[in-house]
Design brief:
Strands 1, 2, 3, 4, 5, 6, 7, 8 and 9 form a nine-stranded parallel β-sheet that branches. The chain has one domain (17-120). It has one helix at residues 128-145; strands spanning 17-20, 25-32, 35-38, 41-48, 51-54, 59-71, 74-86, 91-103, 108-115. The protein has one helix and nine strands. It is mostly beta strands.
Length: 146
Amino acid sequence: MGIISRGNAPDRKRTGTTVIAAGTNLVGDLTLSDSLHIDGSVEGKVKSDSEVSIGQEGQFEGDITAEIVMVSGQFNGTIEADRLEIVATGKVSGTVTVGQLVIESGAQFNGTSKIRDQHPPRQIAHDRSAEEPASEDRQKASKKEQ
């Protein structure tokens, strides 16, 4: 195996991290299979198959879809994630739909939240054919009583 293919086996999960450094202002949409760490300012949409973290000096405005979102800085927008953690220095404003929501003491959350159920809701089906004979039997019974 040569050096060029080392670490890039197709069956291995990628574990890299993209960093938006302090002083960087990014406007646009990002789609990542790896983690993203934001110390600068981002405006747009981010979709990550892994973790998105907003550092203490980081700012984000827009939409995030990720497995895990950790906020130490400022966030304004919508979050769709399996887990959202807002640490003591974090400020989140907007709408979040998550499997788990963790808010540390000192953190700020202003918005609406919806906790996803890990299991889909059970569906109750009504079988009309089962109801009809019962109603017919009641009609026959009421006629007999008259």
